[in-house]
Amino acid sequence: MARKCRLTYTATLMLLLITWKESTYCNGLTVSPPKNLVLTDPGQLGQLEITWNPPDSLPNVTECSVRYQLEYNTYRESWASIRTSKRTYTAQFDLMKDVRVRIYTLLSGTCTNDTMIKSTDYTEVIQKPPSTGVSGTEVLDFKCVFHNMEYTECQWRRSEKIPDNSLQKLYFWHKELGQAEECPKYKTSGGVTIGCTFADVPLPVFTDINFCLNGSSPEGPLKPTFASLQIQNHVKCAATKKLHLQTGPDKFELHWEHPDGKVPGHCLEYEVEHTQEGPDGKKSSTKSLPGGRTSLSLSIDINKTHCFRVRSKVHKYCASTSYWSDWSHPVCHPATSPAKPS
């Protein structure tokens, strides 16, 4: 027992000596943060180039590697952090908000006894959004919809503060383009630009697409609006066209086909609306069905009129967000007296 205690004591003492040695060694070595942190806008509507230089003085690093820890606020309203040995990085930002970037120096290797040393200070750049533009003239409710995974349409609403005779323009950029391009086909209503259609100029999927909507007016430039998205996350399917209703003595069998378009059937989820009308009035209910399912069985009350309609959307396992399609035309029983859902 005494021998075991002596061994434990000796091991503990050796561990303390090693820890004290590393702490003494590392505490005597410091590193400064990088310098000349610069943000450059190459005209890609929110994708900025970040560059920096090593600190003025570094310890003898012949036996150590120098890396950098870059932290920045993303356009998704969260912070990101990366470590790199390079001195340049490209990231996407929301130019309608403050852009914040900070960077540390990291040192590790034999010279630090294989301990990572991080500069206690950091170099930071804060870039304010552009202040140009008539106040309150940003567009409202900007969104893009990838219809049937075939073409994209972006729409927006004008602010009430936009002066008459204003001219709005939409620009877009993605990594397949050398520079930002203007909307290929505008959509107008009453002489006012309200959207842009990308039909003959398809947008790529699984790629960040940056948009900038700006313009001019007799009172000066309009406030710009920036957005960034991936279109496969903004799909709206076509309405389901083919519904089949089979009746039995005590139940209905409803079947339908996937809507037209390029959306894979296994990526779709459905919602069925059932309306029944009888002597006691009219009632409606909806039922959600898991991905890929295209049929539903229900018990019936033969004394009531029953109508069904279906809509679909891309489920969460295929897209982070999506839009419900329009409702299909209803099918009813008895078919001679349809009670169309409102």
Explain what the structure shows.
GO terms for molecular function: cytokine receptor activity. It comes from Pundamilia nyererei. It is found in: Membrane. The protein is mainly β. It is built from one helix and 26 strands. It has one helix spanning about 1-25, and strands at about 35-40, 45-55, 65-75, 80-85, 90, 100-110, 115-120, 125, 140-145, 150-155, 165-175, 180, 185-190, 190-200, 210-215, 220, 225-230, 235, 245, 250-255, 270-280, 280-290, 295-300, 305-315, 320-325, 330-335. Strands 13-14-10-9-18-25 form a six-stranded mixed beta sheet, with no helix packed on it. Strands 3, 4, 6, 7 and 8 form a five-stranded antiparallel beta sheet that branches. Strands 11, 12, 15, 16 and 17 form a five-stranded antiparallel beta sheet that branches. The protein is elongated. Residues about 1-25 have low confidence and may be disordered.
